[in-house]
Design brief:
- The protein is built from 13 helices and 3 strands.
- The protein has a 3-stranded mixed sheet.
- It has a domain at about 5-145 and about 355-360.
- The chain is mostly helical.
- It has helices at about 25-30, 45-60, 65-80, 100-105, 115-125, 130-140, 145-165, 175-195, 200-225, 255-270, 285-315, 320-350, 350-360; strands spanning about 5-10, 15-20, 90-95.
- Keywords: Membrane, Transmembrane, Transmembrane helix.
- It holds the Pfam family DUF2985.
- InterPro entries: DUF2985 (IPR021369).
Length: about 375
């Protein structure tokens, strides 16, 4: 495989993408760079914005990048807290599409640039399952996400063990021994849940506070605009911000607006799936869904705290069977549902038709 030095790195907000470089910008890079200035002072910032645009476009059309982003966002929300000494951003290595045969070259308009060929390959050959599985492998093979995958496997393994022992699919033909292994499986499962469910409570409480403030300002903005007889916002989840919108009409006070901006930036750093504002490729993330996700993650911690008290405060002879039978699934399902809503919310934000049309036009595809 090519070394990192021979590859072009595109740094996006949610992922870093590496691709073999041929040293010359293609059609996709040229079209997406038209919206950026080329003055010397803003060159570095402009390059970063340009790279982010490319990655954001790929996130919409490429199942491989989308899969890695979805899995990473779920892991960052439920398992991995934002800490300063490591990056939670995944690195995705894209391989070049296979070279065309002589027959294909004669019947197709080919592109020399690797990025152009990659995008053309995605738009002409969907192969969603294959690309998604490639994304799963990209996610698992990184060091931090490998630990996440091992954690998920252990949770599933010991959860299945509880079911197998309870249902006597694994029958030890001795009630005391059977109960002992049910207890061992339950305690291990409880310990795994405690690492995240209890250990991450400080971050979860802080993020819930931040999204509640954002949700509050959404409702307050709607109310104040109605009182001022202003038209309804085109997207109530994309709250106007004078930092980005020169035509902003003030309804919040300066203090409230500054607080909203601060909460959005900080929440976005912690919850990598959150998008406070719309772009050419994505809509703003639904605020109500964001609040629901944080509530479900809090529910995971809530049930886990009760489960810890039950598991460690009572031995297996004193503990009512229904306690673990309810609390373990409740804690587990809260985390699973949070991940599902992260995925669904992310899918809703993608402007698939517009992005695909823009890229097809850039490549002059039918």
């Amino acid at each position: 495989p090519p070394s990192r030095d021979s590859m072009i790195s595109m740094e996006g907000a949610q992922a870093e993408v590496l691709m073999p470089s041929d040293g010359h910008p293609g059609r996709i890079e040229s079209v997406l760079s038209l919206g950026h200035s080329t003055n010397h002072e803003g060159a570095l910032e402009d390059d970063n914005l340009h790279e982010d645009d490319i990655v954001e476009h790929l996130d919409v059309i490429d199942p491989q990048i989308s899969c890695v982003s979805n899995l990473t966002n779920a892991a960052n929300s439920i398992l991995i807290p934002p800490l300063s000494f490591y990056s939670r951003k995944p690195c995705i290595v894209l391989s070049c599409p296979p070279p065309l045969t002589d027959v294909e070259r004669a019947s197709h308009k080919t592109h020399d640039d690797n990025l152009d060929r990659h995008v053309e390959d995605i738009l002409s050959k969907r192969q969603r399952f294959r690309r998604t599985m490639r994304g799963v492998w990209d996610f698992v093979k990184t060091r931090s996400q490998f630990i996440t995958a091992v954690y998920g496997f252990l949770v599933a393994f010991w959860g299945a063990a509880i079911v197998l022992f309870l249902a006597r699919i694994i029958n030890l033909h001795n009630s005391n021994t059977q109960g002992f292994w049910i207890e061992v499986s339950s305690q291990i499962e409880n310990g795994l849940f405690t690492v995240t469910g209890v250990g991450l409570i400080p971050w979860r409480v802080r993020d819930t506070y931040r999204i509640y403030k954002i949700w509050h300002y959404k409702r307050r903005t709607r109310k104040l605009r109605q009182e001022a007889k202003l038209p309804t916002l085109f997207d109530e989840d994309d709250l106007p911000d004078p930092v980005y919108d020169n035509n902003y009409v003030h309804v919040l006070s300066d203090k409230e607006q500054a607080d909203l901006h601060y909460q959005q930036i900080q929440f976005m750093k912690s919850q990598t799936w959150y998008r406070p504002h719309g772009t050419e490729t994505h809509r703003a993330f639904p605020i109500n869904t964001a609040l629901l996700i944080c509530s479900l993650v809090d529910g995971n911690s809530f049930f886990q705290v009760i489960l810890c008290g039950t598991m460690w405060g009572l031995n297996r002879f004193q503990r009512p069977p229904w306690s673990t039978g309810i609390l373990i699934p409740a804690s587990f399902l809260c985390g699973i549902m949070a991940a599902v809503f992260i995925w669904k919310g992310g899918q809703k934000t993608k402007r698939c038709d517009q992005v695909e049309a823009r890229l097809r036009s850039a490549l002059a595809m039918d």
